[in-house]
Structure formats: structure tokens, C-alpha cells
Amino acid sequence: MTIQTSEITSVSSKRTTFKVMLVCWMSILFEGYDVGVMGAVLPTLSEYREWNLSPIQLGALSSYTLVGMFFGAFIIGTLSELYGRRRMLLICVTLFSSTMLATALAPTPWFFGLMRFIGGIGLGGVIPVAAALTIEYSPTEKRSFNYAIMYSGYSLGILCAALVAIWLLGQFGWRGVMIVGSLPLLLIWPMSRLLPESIEYLSNRGLHDKAKKLAQKLEITYHEPVKLEQKRHSLKEVVAIIFSKDYLRATCCFWVALFCGGFIVYGLNTWLPSIMRKEGYDLGSSLTFLVVFSLSSAIGGLFLGKVADKCGARGTVAFFFMLGALGIGLMVFKQSIYMNYLLVGIAGIGCISAPLILTGYVAHFYPSSVRASATGWTMSISRIGAMSGPMFGAYIASLGVASSWNFAAFSAVTVIGGIAVMLLPNKRL
């Protein structure tokens, strides 16, 4: 088939790059708050007498958002190519921020869960669209680093959720913490003024004059579309390549590792404060563990990105997966609060930062003809793990066993993820 391709060869305006990265970073920050807020309010929500929720019900409420994210990644990703990346990013932020306000006013658990699911659709679309815009408007030599900076907003958003909960829970309860998550609605207009449309989108839609004018306005070097002959693989051919003899081992390893990564990230985000509360810490100290977990992962992501560039992604990710498993596993034993803070920090680097680097490695591993499909499918498997993590934590909590079982179980899953990474082929075939 004949297709048209265009390319931004350089971004000469640092101001443009900064504006795009700022809006994308803010969007990811707001998403991190929305995702992290459940773990922050779960100890209080579990004691909310009007609803009298069981651990299994609490786990289900935490998973509704992740189910929405699973579908949102497909829906928003497709719509962004039809209606524009800029537009869909702003719609996503508006959607999940609006549902946060509705969730704060929820009269019943059923309505709470419905709003979390709808908000999850918006959340699922933010990361792929923000990533695409960040990569597009970044100089080639800085794309990986800019991506890491942009994605740091996710962990910082979780951090903000924990800090806001420490500040507001005692006086305003869980509803007050949820309401704060709707404040991004006030920033939609300024964000829309800062964020340009994707030039790639305009060109791919055949709007070449608009693409050229926007490139000139943004001081971007832009080449006219060039016709190329490229074969489009059918779904059957894509599946045949991904599961071929050359790539089957890698596909299985990526899927297992990122399933475990999603499982641990969302399982611990949701249940860590509740687990530590059960260990005897007061509410403030329990939430501080979530602060440490998210802050360490934000800093660790930038550090691991540089290490992976120098030492290789496979070995770096495997090492920090295992280090994270060790951090979680050692919490089975009684420690001082400061030692537990250290162990949780190590877990944050191993359980959030390492899967982030692995996600980037997936996109570079497969041939370009199936890269998008392979990456999308792998992320879907990760979302399934993300849905499973909170429910698994709920199941452990429902058994009434010692909290050390939580740490042992989450550590075991992290070890499985690390082993899967170690079994990856040394290099792309």
C-alpha cells in the first residue's frame, strides 16, 4: 500500500518543547493523584460506617478505575488519531477530574464505583497521548530523558495524594481528599492555551497546510510528506510475528514481567497504608509510607533511565526488580519505622521505576512493522495485572491473617517478574 509520512526533524524552539512537556507532565501528575487517592483514603473508607464495606468490596472499588483504564487506552488512542491528540488529552483530563468531583459526592458504593470506572476511561488515555506528544516535540537526542521527566509526574501525583490525605483526612474525611482531585478542571483553559496540536496528526489526516503553518509558528523544521511504499500486516500476520519462534520467548517474558509490574504497583499503591495501619502505625505514619513509596519511584525513574542507557535495560531492570522484591520481603520482619521507610523506598524504585524502563524497552525490541501492536498488547497485559493487584490485596485482607503475609505474597510476585526479565533474550533478534 502507499502511505504518506512526515517527520519533525528538529525542535528549534526550546520554549515549545517546554510548553508541551509542562502540559503533559501536569496531565500525568493529575492522573497519578487520581490513581493514588484510593490507597490514601482506603484506611478511612474501610471505617466508613454508612457503607460498612468488606475488604473484598474495597478491593473491587479500587479495581473499577483500572478496568476503565484498560478500555480507555484503546478508545482514546484510536480517537486521538481521528480527532487530534491535543483535544483528546484535554478531554481525558476533564473527564477524570469531573468524575472525581462526582465520586466525592457519591451517595452509594455503586455510584462511587461507576464514577471511578468512567474516570478510568479518561485516565487510560492520558499516558499514551501524553507520551506521543512528548516524544514528537522533543529533540531526538533528548527523547528518552524527556519521557522520563514527563512520566515522573505519575509518582509525584501519588505523592500529592498521600500528602493531601495527611492534611485533610482528619478534618474533612475521604470526600475532602477526593474533591481536591477535581481542581484540575480550573486549569483546563490555561493548558489548552499552552498545548499545540500534534503536527504528526495534522499531516496524517492530510491537513498539510495547517501542519506547515503550525510548524512555522512553533519554529520547527518540518519536511513535506513523502510517499512511501509500505506493507501493512494483517492481524493474523502480526500475531504470527509476535508469537513466532524468534519472538515467542521475549513475548512471554515481557507479558509475565509487566503483569507482575502492574500487579505490584497498583496492589501496593492501594493497600500499603492499610497494611501499615494494621501493623500498628497511626493514620499519619501509615500515609507517610505511601509518600516514601511514590517519592522514591519518581527519583528512581530518572536514575534508572540513565543507568539503563549505559548498562543496558535488561540487566538494570532485572536487578532492580529483585532489589524491590528484597525490600518488600524484609518487611515481613519487625523493623524500626525508619528501617521500614528505607525498605519501602527501595520497593518504590524496584516496583514502579523498573517496570517503567521495561515498558520503554518493549517498544525497541520488536520490528517496526509490529512494534505498536506488540507494545499495545503488552500494556494490556500490564493493565490486567493492575486490576488483579488490588483484588489480591483484598483477598489477603479478608483472610484475617498477619500483615506479613501481604509482604511475602507481593515479594513473591516481584521475584517472578524479575525472573521473567532475566529470561529475556540478551538482545533483539
Set out the fold topology.
Blueprint: E1 2-5, E2 8-11, H1 14-45, H2 55-83, H3 85-104, H4 109-136, H5 143-180, H6 188-194, H7 199-204, H8 208-217, E3 220-222, E4 226-229, H9 235-242, H10 248-278, H11 283-311, H12 313-330, H13 337-365, H14 371-398, H15 404-422
Antiparallel strand pairs: 1-4, 2-3
Short description:
This protein has helices spanning 14-45, 55-83, 85-104, 109-136, 143-180, 188-194, 199-204, 208-217, 235-242, 248-278, 283-311, 313-330, 337-365, 371-398, 404-422, and strands at 2-5, 8-11, 220-222, 226-229. It has 429 residues and is mostly helical.
Structural class: mainly alpha
What is the multimeric organization of the chains shown? Answer: single chain
Distance N to C terminus: 26 Å
Average per-residue pLDDT, rounded, comes to 82
The profile of the biggest β sheet is: 2 strands, antiparallel
Percent range of helical residues: over 70%
Strand content: under 5%
Radius of gyration: 21 Å
Shape: globular
Order of helices and strands: EEHHHHHHHHEEHHHHHHH
Biggest sheet strand line-up? 1-4
Please count the helical segments: 15
